[in-house]
Amino acid sequence: MAKANEFEDVFRELHSILKKYEKKLTVVQDKTDNYYLNAPKLVDNKKPMFFGAATIKKNSVSYHLMPVYVNSELLDSISPELKKCMQGKSCFNFKKVDKRLFKELARLTKACVMDYKKLGYI
Known about the structure:
By secondary structure, this protein is an alpha+beta fold.
């Protein structure tokens, strides 16, 4: 099993990807093990639309991106390596820092922000 400080390093990297969009999104939680963002606009149920999160779990660090659930076409261009990190439809799990995959995830996150903007959530 990975060491706790390895997960903290992974979390810091993933947190930094999401943090770039704080001004466009709403910070719901910003803790040392959980960073959670919503889109600012309320949707039909009068609640904000979830955007993404980075969370330290027991066996990995999870990176959630709701826009890929809303629009699965955003995943069409991801690499097989990043696809292997997926669990479910909108969650990626990591046990160690992988600069190449995180760079790809940063591009995907940017595309997600642009897609949410196009859909009117931002």
